Amino acid sequence: MSVLVWVEHDAGTVRDATLSAVTAAAKLGEVHALVAGAAVGPVAEAVARIEGVTKVLVADDAAYAQLLAENVAALVVGLMDTHEAFLAPATSHGKNIAPRVAALLDVMQISEVLSIKDASTFTRPIYAGNAIATVSSRDAKKVLTVRATAFAKAAAQGGTAEVVHVPSRGDSGLSRFVESRLAQSERPELTSAKVVVSGGRAFSSAEQFRALIEPLADKLNAAIGASRAAVDAGYAPNDYQVGQTGKIVAPELYVAVGISGAIQHLAGMKESKVIVAINKDADAPVFELADLGLVGDLFELVPELTSKL
Ligand code: FAD
Question: Which residue's CA is minimally distant from atom 49 of ligand 1?
Fold first, then answer.
């Protein structure tokens, strides 16, 4: 079986989630990687070196510069005559492109795949990750998004894939890029950070969130996350949200401060290797999952912890 993997790249760099998608795709068959973008020669060269990729298909055209899902989906569909499966990482871009591909191919999408049992059987989370469903598809073409944290990253070096240019399908005219406003941060990226420090509603204000969480995150070289309650209250920006409707993270260490542990939050971080919780309520549900817990007032415990690190 030939599998087409959509390569997520940013500023000339292949995103880590792509490496996990390659590992997943290799369980299905021969891995072909699709690099769509403008002036993506260096990205294509980097992808050709990823272990497990046998062919790199390059669509170099201004129509793909902003990775508009409508344009990329049309490109993918044009390549599916020679591929039995399309696979994208379950990132914002991947989740934007894959459903369009599935609809255009008139097949179902299998979302957030956690494991691949065989060519047509997959596991995926349901009920905010509280149950794992095994799903089987009889569709001739499979369209999958895969959860990057569930698959090891393929080695970025060692491959010698052939690079082939494919014709552009041009601009579909269905959508138009206006602008992107990106948050700038010196910190590690939330979904790939080894350590994440997250804060919840208990911080009571954006000022207190920053004043307490940032020094702790600095000491641990951590990315900062937040519960939805903290985001909704304006204590932390939207892109910090961890959980069912936020980002899925699985760092080596996850520190949850003033977060109760609602299932929707746990859905985004419960695969973390070591979970530390700080909460003044000893019965908070987060302690059921935590490996280490500190019961007490975060306004005292966090500065003390930070000063001792
Ligand atoms: P709370 O539940 O209010 O908990 C605050 C905690 O802080 C409490 O445990 C309290 O004991 C503790 N505390 C208070 N003061 C102190 C102090 N001084 N020192 C120490 N501890 C203190 N939530 C997410 O996080 N991510 C999601 O992606 C998400 N998606 C959702 C999707 C849906 C469809 C729905 C319905 C909900 C979703 N939620 C999500 C919301 C979720 O249900 C919870 O409401 C939210 O996670 C609660 O955030 P919190 O733990 O910060 O706040």
Answer: 229
The per-type count for the chain, helices as H runs and strands as E runs, is 9, 17
Express each pLDDT in 95-134 by its tens digit: 999 999 999 999 999 999 999 999 999 999 998 888 999 9
Query: What is the span of the domain harbouring residue 132?
Result: 2-165
229: CA distance to ligand 1 center in Å? 5
| Structure confidence at residue 177 (pLDDT) | 95
Is there a single domain that holds both residue 66 and residue 150? yes
- Look at strands 9-10 and 13-14 and give their pairing: antiparallel
For a pocket test of ligand 1, which of 264, 275, 289, 301 has the largest count of ligand atoms closer than 8 A to its C-beta?
A: 264
d(CA 295, CA 259) in angstroms, rounded, equals: 12
Residues with CB under 6 A from ligand 1: 200-202, 227-230, 241-246, 258-260, 262, 264-265, 268, 279-281, 284, 297-299
Q: How far apart are CA 282 and CA 136, in angstroms?
A: 42
Name the domain count of the chain: 2
Q: Is residue 173 part of a domain?
A: no
Give the model's pLDDT for residue 295: 98
**Residues 62 and 197 both lie in one domain:** no
Residues 280 and 211 reside in one and the same domain: yes
